[in-house]
Amino acid sequence: MEKKRNDKTEMAWIILIVVVILVFGMIFSNIETIDDSSTETTKQTTSKSSNNLYEMNEKVNFGDWQIEVTDVKDTQVLKTEYDSKETKNNYIVVTMEIKNLQNKPAMLLTSDTQVTLGSVGIYSRSLFELHNNKDEYVADYNLEGYLDNDISIMFNEINPKTTVQYKAVFETNKKSTDANYTLTIDGSEKAIKLY
Known about the structure:
alpha+beta, 2 helices, 4-stranded antiparallel sheet, 5-stranded mixed sheet
């Protein structure tokens, strides 16, 4: 009888050890390696601007994405070959380079995006926002069709380690040079000064 208890105890310990080894194996197999190139970029970006306010033409990391504002233009008319859209106010067109720092294709979405399959589409706050001293403006994604974008930001994945050009449009009451505008991405504390 005593030998049976020892055998059962030994078997229980062996099973426990095997389970612990399997659990640790699963945990450590899910840890991803860090990409040295994105780490270097992060170090460069944070060393340039420590107060979360960045300049145009400066590469800024926002999570798994790197964004660089390369141009800002004011216009009252957005045109394509076949159509145009006019405003009595002002359109600020912000051109940026967006790079996916991840190791897999991904969509640039806001942190609160909710995608519902089988019913009504996508809910999200605006990914890109302009701020001046008093006002906040959101990008108008309905105007994407009037611009020469590499992709539609809302519905396409960007491949890993690749950069695409994207233009965001904001309808404002002042030109970009008449106010101290900053661009924020997904409600981040980081902002990019326009001019």
